[in-house]
Amino acid sequence: MLGADVVFGRRRSLLCKLGDRSGFVTLRFFHFSAAQQRALERGVRLRCYGEARPGPAGLELVHPEYRVLDPAAAVALEATLTPIYPAGEGVTQPRLRQLVGQALALSERQHPDLLHDWLPAGLLPNLPSLGDAVRYLHTPPADAPLELLARGEHPAQRRLAFEELIAHHLSLRQLRARVQRRRAPPLQAPAAFTERFLAALPFTLTRAQQRVCREITADLARSHPMLRLLQGDVGSGKTAVAAYALVQALGSGHQAALMAPTEILAEQHRATLSAWLEPLGVRIAWLTGKLKGRARAAQLAALADGEAGLAIGTHALFQDDVHYRDLALTLIDEQHRFGVHQRLALRDKGRGGVTPHQLIMTATPIPRSLAMIGYADLDHSVIDELPPGRTPVNTLTVADQRRPEVIARIHHACRAGQQAYWVCTLIEESEQLQAQAAETTAAELRLALPDLRIGLIHGRLKPAEKNAVVDAFKAGELDLLVATTVIEVGVDVPAASLMVIENPERLGLAQLHQLRGRVGRGGIASHCVLLYSAPLSRQARERLGILRETNDGFRIAERDLELRGPGEVLGTRQTGELQLRIADPLRDAGLLPAVKRAAEALATDQPRAVAPLIRRWLGRAARYGEV
After folding, report:
1. What is the dihedral of CA 164, 165, 166, 167, to 10 degrees?
2. Which regions of 78-207 does DSSP assign to beta strands (E)?
3. Which end of the chain has a smaller Cβ tally under 10 Å, C or N?
4. Would you state the pLDDT for residue 242?
């Protein structure tokens, strides 16, 4: 130590000059005591750790960790690397290391059961024991492979990830077993009823739709509840498959319910299913939060006495005052937008000890690795074929400086008889601000394009106003629809062939893919213009590049998972569900086959190990897959 001085600038700080044969560095402390200042006197020997940054007089370490060395003792490097832990305010790294060291020592001397290895060696795919893995990661040797550790691919890390994934898998197996012990009514409509439904459809089901219908029919015929996840890319025809499932319940004389996250999507389902099912004699009840008074009472009465066979609506379907005479099937669309308790509340509307069958649908494809972790309790069906007539959407990225060119392109397309969307987004999650942005954009476009019929839709409009705008657009009475992301799902206008999305860099890949799916629904060549604000970050360029390259929702979902993490993709970040501590769905995807085999072997051969494993990794946490 070459000396320490208190300096006064914008903030008082203690500056210590430290040097050796290789050069000099300054230590800067904004928070310090008089005792600390006295201890850092000239001639003291220190060992320091911190991030070196450029300062006024060369390199600086701000608030580094340091240790005063005994000048009489030889200075030897420690045998292990120094761990850096995630720390909150008021907890220092030295204190955390001390606590971890004490915990490891106690686990070895007094509580060996804490690191008891519940996995037999034969189940481990060339991985170390749990105790060895934990000790290695907290005290790695000086020659540890740092790059391997940084990537999370060291055998010690993979050992912990392997056990964590097994615990999640076992938890979901237990959940599935509990649900399947419940009683459900077998559902199978008379063949003539199903044939009438299929004959009335204005199209023929694709091979993929027919395959999924067979899978669902087999599930519904059993006396325990169906738990099935139906995945399909935007426009793959999930609604037709859902209607086929509804026909099995309704044709068997039971009730069904379809819940959607938004009124626009629920209204879209009501319009479509009314056209398909009402000719079969099915009465449809409609329930949303905005329905009040006598109208609501009439719908509730129709459900309670069984006069209405199908209920369609939003969260209102599972409120306390909603009673069903004989609910046997529930369908949940865009499942990631509902919480666990909301799905449970709808399931619990079954009466007389009967649990309804449940079909969960999503148009946001879930990567296979994530589905195996987060939905291990569900059977999976995938519609992997688009109906005839769907055209791939050509996606372009255009800087906002070229906005006049984009407006001219919209004008040309609409004058040629096409229809277009202009989607407005904001960073802030505020319907009010989004509405303001959309209103401003609509006013500007009306000035620039006075000869076009321009409509406006956003989340702050009343349901009747939204429906009127959407209906006018469908009927061709509007050329251009200015909208917020409220049109992400539930708007189907085959004549619309052009979409502009402002500030796409602010949205996730899955949401952009959903928005883009509003076009390309007819036989016209369709285009999506991503009108971004320059300059773009490297990650934003990557994300938009993926949308230019592919219309494959599953590939887009994989990239979304890489960029945003499993909690965001599954919609669980807010609730804390599926919070993996060590494992990573992409990095550790190669472990999943072994995880499944090990979980099955444990459940069969060593059932006493199951509960301790789940408790170690999940505690009492609610499971994401509980439906």
Report:
1. 50
2. none
3. N
4. 96
Which residue, chain included where needed, has tokens 């400086």? 401
Minimum mean pLDDT among 56-60, 146-150, 498-502: which range? 56-60
For 330-380, the pLDDT digits (tens) are 999 876 555 555 556 667 788 878 899 999 898 777 777 677 777 777 888
What is the predicted pLDDT for the residue at 624?
41
- Span 605-626, average pLDDT: 77
DSSP state for residue 89 in the 8-state scheme: T
pLDDT score recorded for residue 336: 56
CA nearest to 560, candidates 400, 299, 366, 422: 366
Q: CB atoms < 10 A from the CB of 74, how many?
A: 6
For the chain, the first-to-last Cα distance in angstroms comes to 64
Residue 42 has φ and ψ, to the nearest 5°, of: -60, 135
Copy the structure tokens of residue 486.
């409220």
Q: pLDDT (tens digit, 9 = 90+) per residue, 336-347?
A: 555 555 556 667
Cβ-based neighbour number of residue 22 at 10 Å? 6
Query: How is the chain split into domains, by residue range?
Result: 3-76, 78-145, 152-390+583-627, 393-550
Are 87 and 96 within 8 A, CB to CB? yes
Please state, in angstroms and rounded to a whole number, the distance separating the CA atoms of residues 370 and 392. Answer: 26
Task: Decide if 259 contacts 331 (C-beta within 8 A).
Answer: yes
* Per-residue CA distances from 275 to 148, 268, 464 (Å): 58, 11, 20
Predicted pLDDT of residue 345 = 65
80 forms beta bridges with 141
Name the CATH architecture for the domain at 152-390+583-627. Answer: 3-Layer(aba) Sandwich (3.40)
Query: Cα 253 to the chain's mean position, in Å?
Result: 36
Rounded to whole angstroms, the Cα distance separating 341 from 623 reads: 11
Which pair of tokens denotes residue 86? 């995630």
pLDDT, tens only, 205-234: 999 999 999 999 999 999 999 989 898 888
pTM metric for this prediction: 0.75
Distance CA 226, CA 137 (A): 43
- Burial track 483-520 (b if 16+ CB lie within 10 A, e otherwise): bbbbbbbbbbbeebbbbbbbbbbbbbbbbbbbbbbbbb
Q: How far apart are CA 422 and CA 262, in angstroms?
A: 20
Tokens 């399909």: give the residue.
Answer: 232
CB neighbours (10 Å) of residue 293? 7
Q: How confident is the model at residue 575 (pLDDT cuts 50, 70, 90)?
A: very low
For residue 407, give the 3-state DSSP assignment: helix
The answer to whether the beta carbons of residues 504 and 541 sit under 8 Å apart is no
Q: What six digits make up the tokens of 352?
A: 């007389």
> Where are the strands (E) in 248-376, listed by range?
255-259, 284-287, 310-313, 327-332, 357-362
Q: Which two tokens mark 53?
A: 């940054």
Q: Which helix (H) or strand (E) holds 349?
A: none
In 3D space, the residue among 383, 336, 361, 364 whose CA is nearest the CA of residue 236 turns out to be 383
Say whether domain 3-76 belongs to CATH 2.40.50: yes
Is CATH 3.40.50.300 the right assignment for the domain spanning 393-550?
Answer: yes
Give the separation between CA 199 and CA 466, rounded to whole angstroms: 32
Q: Fold match between 3-76 and 393-550?
A: no
What is the predicted pLDDT for the residue at 364? 72
